[in-house]
Amino acid sequence: ELGVELLNVLHRLILTRESPAIQLAALEVVRQILFASQEHVKEKRRSAEVDDGASEKETLPEFGEGKDTGGLVPGKSLVFATLELCVCILVRQFPQLNPKLTGSPGIRARKHQLLSQNENQLVSAALVILSDVPAVCSPEGSVSVLPTILYLVIGVLRETAVKLPDGQLPLTVAASLQALKGVLSSPMAQAEKSQTAWTQLLCSALATILDCWDSDGAQQELDEVSLLTAITVFIFSTSPEVTTIECLQKRCIEKFNFALESKDPVVQLKCYQLLFSIFQCPNRAVSHPYIHSLASLIVSKLQETEKTKPETVAELQVVQEGIKVVAALIALAKEEHRKCLHHAIWCTDCKKLCW
After folding, report:
1. Which pLDDT belongs to residue 305?
2. What CA–CA distance (Å, rounded) separates 301 from 291?
3. Helix (H, G, I), strand (E, B) or coil at 113
4. Region (Disordered) spans which residues (predicted)?
5. What are phi and psi of 219, to 5 degrees?
6. Are 178 and 123 in contact (CB under 8 A)?
7. CA triplet 334, 340, 345: central angle to 5 degrees?
8. Residue 149 · residue 100 · CB < 8 Å
9. Is residue 173 within 8 Å of 157, Cβ to Cβ?
């Protein structure tokens, strides 16, 4: 009750004060309130688990917001008040995240624009809070809030994923990806009572991210590196049940295929770096489809350098990263395939000596 009242006060403060410093301070207090609530829920769970009267797993009561129904009561729910406050911060920067305003005149005017330093800090702070919300919930409660959290995090990623000249990720994109990783890694994704629902919602979230980058005019300016990194976050932060669904996995592989064919050396370089990690994923159901689909293209791209040598440092870095990926493939390949891969690297290395 006290926590909810305090969050409501902070919400009103953010609505009435335009000072970024005051708003950031308010968000820090929100984070501390949420952390205290997390510790309280953890302690209640530990106490119940060691209680002799609740030794049977199925008799343990559900702790956290939402209890065993998943219901969140406005005015009484700490989680609901936290989400309201985060939505307030994010919609101020991205009005298009408000479904009621979508399509209104002028709403798209700020899309794909970089934020100021203060705006970046506010958005990043709100995303950190959002990623921590599931830890305050019961399994059923986490299912109730997950769609909202994913909508907001992916929405910020989509609205700020612009290409920067040096190939770096915008601060808000990096914050979105970190928040996404935190959500995907939540223990609630594996909890018995919420695992099935989480898997379905995370599959939908991955499909949404892939849809954002489909080439349909308005979305063409979005940054491929942000997309590839988001896919990789899903691969390493969720269970294989999410990323090995055939239709989703095929679309993910297609995005990497397009990136390998990109004329932008920054995109190619990052693509190789991410594939290097994916190829070495110990779960074969995850890594092998990428290897089988992309290995031949990677080798052929390296062989092309025998005819056309790199003209810039960036292009040379791409070739070096490609060699590193093929070297990793050699270590993973069956004996009968290693000779061909060795030959590709040997020819490229010899060519590099002439550059």
Report:
1. 79
2. 15
3. coil
4. 45-68
5. -95, 0
6. no
7. 110
8. no
9. yes
Which residues, 6 or more positions from 180, have their beta carbon under 8 angstroms from its beta carbon?
Answer: 131, 153, 154, 157, 230, 233, 237
Name 6's Cβ contacts closer than 8 Å, sequence gap at least 6.
29, 33
User: For 214, what's the count of Cα atoms within 13 Å in the CB-facing half-sphere?
Assistant: 8
Pair of tokens at residue 136 = 């305050």
- How many angstroms separate the CA atoms of 209 and 232, rounded? 12
Backbone Cα Rg of the chain? 23
Q: How many Å apart are CA 310 and CA 341, to the nearest integer?
A: 21
96 secondary structure, DSSP code: G
User: Sign of the C-alpha dihedral, residues 229, 175, 126, 62?
Assistant: positive
Show the CA angle centred on residue 168, arms to residues 162 and 173, nearest 5°.
Answer: 55
Say if residues 128 and 175 touch (Cβ distance below 8 Å).
Answer: yes
Q: Which residues of 236-256 are buried (b: 16+ CB within 10 A; e: fewer)?
A: ebbeebbbebeebbebbbebb
Report the Cα–Cα distance between both ends of the chain, in Å, rounded: 69
Q: Cα–Cα distance between 195 and 198 in angstroms, integer? A: 5
Instruction: Name residues whose C-beta falls within 8 Å of residue 314's C-beta, 6 or more positions apart in sequence.
Output: 265, 266, 269
> What is the C-alpha to C-alpha distance for residues 115 and 35, in angstroms, rounded to an integer?
28
Closest CA to 213 of 237, 230, 198: 230
| 49 residue type, one letter | E
**Residue 214: burial class (beta carbons within 10 Å; 0-12, 13-18, 19+):** exposed
Q: Could you report the average pLDDT of every consecutive run of 10 residues in the chain (355 residues)?
A: 91 93 96 93 79 51 80 91 96 89 52 79 97 94 96 94 81 96 95 94 97 62 89 96 96 96 93 96 94 92 81 89 89 62 51 44
Q: What is the pTM of this model?
A: 0.88
Q: Which residue has the tokens 């989509």?
A: 158
Total Cβ atoms within 10 A of residue 32: 10
Q: Where are the domains of the chain?
A: 253-355
- Residues, the chain: 355
